[in-house]
Amino acid sequence: MPNNFLRGFWKVSWVETKVFMREPMGFIGTIAMPAIIFVVMGRAFGATRPAGALAGVTAISPPRFNVAILAAIVIAVGAVQSLVAIIAIYREGGILKRLRATPLSPVTILGAHVAVKLGFTVVSLALVVLAGRRLFPGVMQVNVFSFSAAVLLSTLSILSLGFVLASLVPTARFAQPIGAVVMYPMVALSGLFFPLSQLPRALQAVAYALPTTHAVALLQGVWDGSGWSAHWMNVGALGLIFVVFSALSTRVFRWE
Amino acid sequence: MAATLSQNPAGRRSVIAVSRLGKRYGKLVAVDDVSLEVREGEIFGLIGPNGAGKTTTMECVQGHRIPDTGTIAVLGLDPRRDANALRQRIGVQHQEAHLQKRIKVWEAVDLWASLYNRVTDGDALLARLGLDAKRDAWFMTLSGGQKQRLFIALALIHEPEVVFLDELTTGLDPQARRAIWDLVTGIRDRGATVFMTTHLMEEAERLCDRVAIIERGRIIEVGTPDELVRKHCPERSVVFTSDDEHVAERLRGMATVKLATSVGATHTIRGEGDDFVTAIIGYIANGGIRVRGFRTEIPTLEDVFLKLTGHTIRD
Asked: Which residues of A touch B92 (CB under 8 A)?
């Protein structure tokens, strides 16, 4: 029931946003860090970029490359590390149990966490784009609508994996290491660092089963201006992962 | 179920009716054939040691846990089937619960208030619970007693008809505990029914109109604290100091006295029944015996528990 879902949804989301921003390093670490890294890196590489690159010169502009990488990492960190830790802490502290004892629907409680993570991702990436437009005029021309849609799909897909992990971690103490054990290989195998074709076959299979791999391909493609049709496989994979992991997490999610 | 709303012998409406409740976790039997009734306007205490099945019973009644067997009615509703309707009418406080570390007191109250159809004024409620000065404080900065008072506020924000309190004062210092006790009697005095659990016998004795003693998932006795003490521990003792060397000997002659012993000038006289203490006072007064100190030793729920289970509640 949509009415049921919306009862408390905005309020819970807003409270979670405020609570997160009050964490030490909450704003800097989550929202501003990608933009700061982008600016620092962009300046370092941007200085060597030939001004007004000539037609025919096949140099990849570093800032352009960085945004897709940053987006993928921001999403993966938010969805896997941060979400898993928050859910584990809330479960251990009985916060989830207490919220469930209210008229809030369970979907609303978890939906608010999705909304908050999505919000942070969007704001931090918007900061990156704004900083980029200011510092490197001309190279940040991207279809904002299309890129946002890619960010949305990627985030939902990776978050659904995060919820399954959050269900599996036994205690809050394990959340950090388990999140790390999943996230680092996921990012490493995503094609950000080495081309997938250079991986051994077995690892390639693993890589294609992970949402980050498809998220990186889609984000990079959309950023570089290729259409969604060129990435229908990635879109399909992200959608499939979202559906499968969301369904799985409704079965295995533990409130206490 | 119409039967659950019938008048009980005390003439008060039954608010909670549990019949033959059973719940196991794997091989562990947490609750075994529990039946109980909570009456409108009373503070009912489920008392017993940790692991006796108090919380499991309470959570089944709240609808948060699915019983294996038995039936439950709360305000005439089924806690599972009518969960949504019931949530608007019951207030809960969980054992050892937390909130978000950095949520402010007013934010929590405001959030909870937004979830219910009908709510009381949050600021007035905080003032009544002595939390008005902490309105803008983060949850993590509150003391144990303040946290529990906030949880009481969250349980009361929608003026529920039934309030569930699970080990409300565990871990609090005596002063904070006393302050909480006053709040709990206040809840009853405003017309709500309270169903609480505790492993503190003193707390049960002070607060509860009726108690059920639960041991290894079974209810072994129900009644008012006074009734239970009279029934199971009728023995009374009078301890007094007197320089009259023969006083113990003389008292031993009384029919109601079971035992009289002396250590120096301190005399301990044991007997049974409500009239025992009066009889001894009468004897001392009539006999013109000069007494320097006088006290009575009357058994408590703690003694009842020991007698019924063979161990103390802290074992």
From this structure: 101
